[in-house]
Amino acid sequence: MLDTAEIRNSFQKLGVDLDQPEADRLLKRMDANGSLTITFDEFRDYFLWYPSAKVQDLFGYWKHSTVGQAATFYALSFQWTANTLFQKEMVTGMWWRHLVAGGIAGCVSRTATAPLDRIKTFYQVFGKKGECETLAKCFQSMIKEGGYISLWRGNGMNILKIAPESAVKFMSYEQIKKIIKGDSERELHIWERVLAGAGAGAFSQSAIYPMEVIKTRLTLRTTGQFDGIFHAARKIYRQEGFRAFYRGYAPNLMGILPYAGIDLAVYETLKRWYIARNPPKTGTGQKPPALVVLGCGMVSSICGQVSSYPLALVKTKLQANVGPVAMAENATLAVMKNIVTQEGFTGLYRGMGPNFMKAVPAVSISYVVYEHVREALGGHMT
Predict the structure, then answer these.
(1) Where are the strands (E) in the chain, listed by range?
(2) What pLDDT score was predicted for residue 218?
(3) What pTM was computed for the model?
(4) Are residues 47 and 30 in contact, defined by beta-carbon separation less than 8 angstroms?
């Protein structure tokens, strides 16, 4: 026999939050004798003419048929998506929700922090020299050279780049987790989340790397050097060849794997840790407050950045193609050796200040926007 507690538990395993009043209504639809429980005969008779044996399809039909009976259940249809008849459509359509949410989150966060990103790039390539000796002088120098609008140089390509990058990263992360998890109902271990995050980072970076090189060149450009994205791409190709679009790919891949893996794994682990110690009220679902999501994003960003920053610095110098060392054989090792020789090991972390000033709010904004957009579209974390 089934009661409302078992019904709610079954829906929760399918990723659907069902409060007590909704469970009572669903039970009454099948409860022929008014006993407030469902016998096998009642369950069989209710689904006798439904052509599916899958639990997801049965629950989808059950809930949809209830919604269709009266206008009082109209709000229920939003939770399951107005145009969805069965739970199967929610599952099979989940990938594009993660794709759209990741793309929007990336665009919003990077636009908000574009000026700090440009200063970080200057520090990584040229160091604290001359007009960029301090953060304030660097701001003043950029404004003097190209006006306030110059603070957003490279942001157009950054948006074009970050939308597919974030979208592919989040979507890949969800899909890889599903592959690891299989049909199991268990929680993923920390190392499994690191593996999923690392794989998602590798997929996303490999897909958009030429755009990353163009973005770096546009960020460092002076007034009149490039007329736009396509002019920059043509000029780089004519002067340096196709291989220029993959300069710094090796240190980038080596850096993004630990960064993406640690970043995403720490974020989701912290969020689940909070939920486990602060159980949501009945029917509210697992939705931590925005400040908690921000905090999780900040901590995960710091962990990821510290682990991969030296490789990110080398990658940017190689992309900029500045100086004879960047053109040498085994350029990754040559650049690292040159920096350590001239500045010591601390030189591998130059620009970390503005990078943290940029990365912490950028990643936090990205996760908050992602959570809200994904939720609005009907997606859920695996």
Answers:
(1) none
(2) 93
(3) 0.60
(4) no
